[in-house]
Structure formats: structure tokens, C-alpha cells
Amino acid sequence: MAEVKQMSLSQYIALKSDHAVAQAFWIVTFALLTAIGAQIEIPHQPVPYTLQTFFVILAGGVLGWRNGLLSMSLYVGMGALGMPVFSGGGFGLVRLLGPSGGYLLSFPVAAALVGGVLALRPRVISETGGMLRRFIADYGWILLAMSSGLVLVFLAGTVQLYAVLFHNWSSAFESGFLIFSGWDLLKLGAAVAICRELRR
User: Fold this and answer.
1) N or C: which end of the chain has fewer CB within 10 A?
2) Residue 13 reports pLDDT greater than 50
3) For 82-140, what is each residue's pLDDT tens digit?
4) Alpha-carbon distances of 142 from 38, 75, 107, 199, rounded to whole Å
5) Cα separations in angstroms, 182 against 39, 49, 151, 179, 187
6) What pairs with residue 50 in β-bridges?
7) Does the structure show a pLDDT above 90 at 55?
8) Would 147 be classed as within a structural domain?
9) Which helix (H) or strand (E) holds 41?
């Protein structure tokens, strides 16, 4: 009779485990981390500075495109259903349709984009060699993937700011895209470093 292999708790929640319990654990964990990041904010109008995007791109980088998408969809869904997970304890469809809604609605797609770009990495690296290959493998491709996710979030946020608030592309771009560049560069650098270590 075949011996039944027992799984330890660490195997059930291992980050790279294929077990459904482990994957569900990390999907929920990153959704909750994003909710916590939303409460760490610097007030600013019309959209506050928060740590949400840090966890969005990290979810895509660490969990992959599918689980990153599911995690951020869970986060947005929790807020839409009334849980106070958005910045300032906000929630509901009104928040999603307001000035900051474009950012929130883009989170699942941005996480999927980061994971999708990272999944293409081996194909690109195989065409290179030497120091360039090592740089791309370690930092360059992760930076490209996460930058793509952030740009998507900014663009979506800018479009909704234009539609619901400014009705002027210049003002929307200044308030929705350029204003966050310095702050998010710090988050991007930290996310790239953490993602590289976790993916190793």
C-alpha cells in the first residue's frame, strides 16, 4: 500500500507551492496587504499618496499573472462589497466611480501585466549572454515588468480623473500621473529588490 505523504504547514503556505491551499493563502494575503497599504497614506488632493501600488506590482511579480490578477480582483471586490479597504477606510461603488477609481480598477490588470511580462523573461534572456544576461535576469526585466504595471495604473487613473473631475488632459496628467512619479520610484525600487529575492 502506497505511503501517504504528510504535508507540513510550511509546505501548505510555501510561496512557490502548487498546492491550492498555499496559492489561496497568498492570494488572500496580498489582497489584505494592499488593504493595509491603502491605510498608510499621505493626504493629497484629489488622490492621496498610499502604499497600494507597492503591493499591486509585488503581487504580480511574486504570484504571477493569474494569482496576481485574482488577488487584486479580490481586493477591489472586497471594497466594492462594502469592506473599508480603500484609502481612508473608503469602500463602495461610489469610490470606484470617483476620482481615485481609475487607479483601483486597474489594479488587477496591472498585477497581471507585471506577472505576464516576467513570464516572458526566459525567452528574451536566452537570446543574450554575458553581463547583459545577468543584469536582465537579476534586475532589468523585473524593473521593466513592474514599471509597466505602474504606468498602466497611472494611465488608468489619469483617464478617470479627466472623465470625472478635470475635463482637461493637462490638469489630469499633472495631478494623476506626474505628481506620483517621485514617490512611486521609491516604491518601485523596493518592490524590484524584494521581488528578486523572493523569486530566487
Assistant:
1) N
2) yes
3) 999 999 999 999 999 999 999 999 999 999 999 999 998 765 555 556 766 777 677 88
4) 23, 23, 18, 10
5) 20, 11, 13, 8, 9
6) 41
7) yes
8) yes
9) strand 41-42
Residue with cell 483601483: 104
Burial class for 109, CB neighbours closer than 10 Å (0-12, 13-18, 19+): buried
Q: Check the CA dihedral 132-138-142-147 and report its sign.
A: negative
Could you tell me if 100 and 50 are in contact, meaning their C-beta atoms sit under 8 angstroms apart? no
Q: Which three cell numbers stand for residue 69?
A: 490578477
Q: Residue 180 belongs to what domain range?
A: 9-199
The answer to whether the CB of 57 falls within 8 A of the CB of 149 is yes
Residue type at position 122: P
Report whether 46 contacts 99 (CB < 8 A).
yes
Mean pLDDT of the chain: 88
Number of domains in the chain: 1
Radius of gyration of the chain (CA): 18
Give pLDDT, residue 43: 86
